[in-house]
Amino acid sequence: MITIDGLKTGDKIPSERELSERLNFGRSSVREALRALELLGLIETRRGEGTFIRDFRGHQLVQLLSTFILQDEKAKRDVFETKNFIEMDCLRLALQRIDNESMENLIEWAKKTNSIHDDDFFYRIMEMADNHLFLRMWLILKEYYYSLDFHHVEYRREDYLLLLEALAEKDVVKTLSAYRKLRNLSVF
User: Fold this and answer.
1) What confidence score (pLDDT) does residue 188 get?
2) What angle do CA 113, 179, 128 make, to 5 degrees?
3) What is residue 9's three-state secondary structure?
4) pLDDT at 149 over 80
5) 128-143 CB burial, b ≥16 within 10 A, e <16
6) Cβ of 160: how many Cβ atoms within 10 Å?
7) Residues 145, 138: contact at Cβ < 8 Å?
């Protein structure tokens, strides 16, 4: 219904009565569903004004899900592994899509930055890969990964620069090898 009506963040959704009629459900079911959506942070109700769509790209949903799913150690490793696979696939895409000017800008940024933050670095790689689904999945996995309280690892500038050098050469084997070195991965 959100898609059909072209609704976006900040837009008012139909009243309980209208939703009940359109969806062919009782008002009590609609009211309960709206409460659940509000609890998840997807909508907000303003007294006297109505119910509005919230920007649900925030952290509430990830944190809520993290309390219910993926609690065993294997599942936590799976999150880390999947995040790494997405990063490697985005490196492969970036190798195909990056232009020389963007590459030079990225290298210049990495050299000038006092300390390279891993998220900033890979966000830039994701942008170069130009795959919005990978970006969204990576953002969710990254937030979920941080919510799991894994020990935070600091990576060395030299390893980022080695990875950028391989990217600039458009060498897949060298790029993935540099990625494994950065992440300290023996097998992938």
Assistant:
1) 46
2) 65
3) coil
4) no
5) bbebeebbeebebbbb
6) 21
7) no
pLDDT(59) > 70 = no
CA distance 103 to 39: 43
Torsion of CA 122, 125, 127, 131, to 10 degrees: -100
Beta-bridge partner residues of 44: 52
Q: Report which of 139, 147, 131 is spatially closest to residue 82, judged by C-alpha positions.
A: 139
Residue 128 tokens read as 């170069």
Of the pLDDT bands very low, low, confident and very high (cuts 50, 70, 90), residue 51 is very high
Residue in 7, 16, 70, 77 with CA at minimum distance from that of residue 42? 7
Sign of CA dihedral 59, 82, 187, 175: negative
Closest CA to 123 of 107, 104, 136: 136
Amino acid (1-letter code) at residue 9: T
One DSSP character per residue, 94-159 reads: HHHH--HHHHHHHHHHHHHSSS--HHHHHHHHHHHHT-HHHHHHHHHHHHHHHHTTPPPPPPPHHH
